[in-house]
Amino acid sequence: MTARHEEIADELRRAIDREEYTVGSLLPTETDLAAHYGVSRGTVRQAVAALTAEGLIGSRQGARRVVLASRRSQSFAELRSFAEWARAMGREATGRVVAQTYRPATKEDAVRLHLPEQTPVLHVLRVRGLDGEPVLLERTVYADWISPAVEAIEPDCPSVTQRLFEDRGLVFAYGEHVIDAVAAGARDAELLGIRRTSPLLRVRRVTTTREGRPVEWSDDRYRSDAVSFSVHNSIGNNALARKTAE
Questions:
Q1: Cα–Cα distance list, 244 to 65, 128, 166, 194, 236 (Å)
Q2: Counting Cβ atoms within 10 Å, is residue 212 exposed (0-12), middle (13-18) or buried (19+)?
Q3: C-alpha–C-alpha distance, residues 171 and 204, integer Å
Q4: How far is 87 from 161, CA to CA, in rounded Å?
Q5: Is 27 left (phi over 0), alpha (psi -120 to 50) or beta?
Q6: Strands 93-104 and 174-183
Q7: Is the pTM of this model over 0.90?
Q8: Are 117 and 106 in contact (CB under 8 A)?
Q9: How confident is the model at residue 57 (pLDDT cuts 50, 70, 90)?
Q10: Cα 7 to the chain's mean position, in Å?
Q11: Distance CA 67, CA 90 (A)
């Protein structure tokens, strides 16, 4: 049975996601929240502590807390997959493999994946969507040791990350992200349903296991009208976040 403070925390999360409490606004006081939910202030305090730990609200002293973010934003301080991020927003993530082939590792592949050059590695071009609308192209190169497991996954699997965890117990533990902007070429424009030369947000990332073994490196290109990135600054935290474009 779910504890009452967990239920309250979840109701507050949904209210923040619906922008009943917008970023920068104050939550009601603990006394008001306790009266609203018919619980003690201690129960409310537990619920608020959970949201504070998640970075949704500030940890300022006093009876009222300021809203810092919603689950529509995904902090890159946590290594959450595209599908997990979409689910947190109440959206459906879709995926479709457009092309998949083995190629000899280039010098760049070898450096990023810590492999000898010419090692056969799996290249996958995948279109990702939110509620069926294409918003992201992933050009991913998988290391040789995990390529067969990726190759066996069905082309429309919504979350390769989750499937590899279920099938192989693989945990994507660390990621490095480099973000810039590029113009959509003819191929990108066709797959994303946008005009050629439209701006795209590019995220080049390398993901590794807990032991630091590279699993994949990818060139991800987001439609800039669908997804944006923001930085939340504070004294103790400077988190980059992915969110849907306003």
A1: 24, 14, 28, 17, 25
A2: exposed
A3: 19
A4: 14
A5: beta
A6: unpaired
A7: no
A8: yes
A9: confident
A10: 24
A11: 19
For position 241, what pLDDT does the model report? 61
- Chain centre to alpha carbon of residue 155: 20
- pLDDT beyond 80 at 88: no
Mean pLDDT of 59-87: 66
Cα–Cα distances in angstroms (integers) from residue 17 to residues 11, 132, 152, in the given order: 10, 21, 36
The pLDDT assigned to 228 comes to: 73
Determine if residue 55 is left, alpha or beta; phi over 0 gives left, psi from -120 to 50 gives alpha, anything else beta: left
Half-sphere exposure at residue 200, Cβ-oriented, CA atoms within 13 angstroms? 27
Q: Residue 53: what pLDDT?
A: 77
Do 47 and 6 form a contact (C-beta atoms < 8 A)? yes
- Residue 111 CA from chain centroid, whole number: 25
